[in-house]
Amino acid sequence: MPGSVTADTSWHDWFKPFARLGYGARGLVYLVLAFFIVSAALTTGSGGDSKDAVRFITQSTASAILAPLLIVSLAGYCLWRLVQALFDTDDHGFDPLGLAVRAGLIGSAASYGFLMVYTFSLWWGSRFSAGGGPGDGFARTAATFIGAGPVSLTLSVLFAIIGGAHIWKAVSRKYRDHIKPSPMVGWWVDLAAIGGLCARGLVFLIIAFLLFRHGLAGEEGRAGLADALDFIAGLPFGVWLLGATGAGFFLFAVYSFAESVWRRINVEDA
Hints:
Elements: H1 2-43, H2 50-58, H3 63-87, H4 96-126, H5 133-146, H6 149-172, H7 186-217, H8 225-233, H9 238-262
Helix pairs in contact: 1-2, 1-3, 1-9, 2-4, 3-4, 4-5, 4-6, 6-7, 7-8, 7-9
């Protein structure tokens, strides 16, 4: 019926920009993270994590505009990841590899959903108090749950799969199946995708190792991005490795911005 066609068209029309905003939000978070990590490398500090990045954004001068926009954009990214996973818009299929990729998409939706709630708690709390208490309390509750032994072991496997998938996606250039940049910037998108995906994949593998170590020992312990960066900084030539990680995160931010423009949002296949 004509009315249903109009409804479908309007749904696609508003959802696609919503999803693209999500990729832009991811790029903004990783751009701030890259700044933190490179600054840490230059000052031999420990850097920060995604919560520090959103805290920086929500406490900036333009937070009244940036924070709500970031919350909405992260919501769009979470919803798009769920659509990708549940409706298989990218044709990953039901074989073990396809199911692993789709599980990774659900994990991505969950992690950015956590970041969205954390951002909202900081922004909402700042409207009534000077501190970031609500957001910090939420983060501590989640960290306690993740630190439990069985949960750590399960998450270590998931992070290992996701990290390996990132590196495989970069080496095989499978990202090209879903992004169609203009020929003028294709080479730069390749550089950003390969460097960014490899850097993010390696950090995920380090998080998987730290989670596995905590879970195997039956101890409660954190194993997030900040802990992975501390681990990198403690390695031989750690300052240089930390700087390279920051550069890789910058490339991933550029890749995210490229996806916000040229990524194929095939929501019609859902």
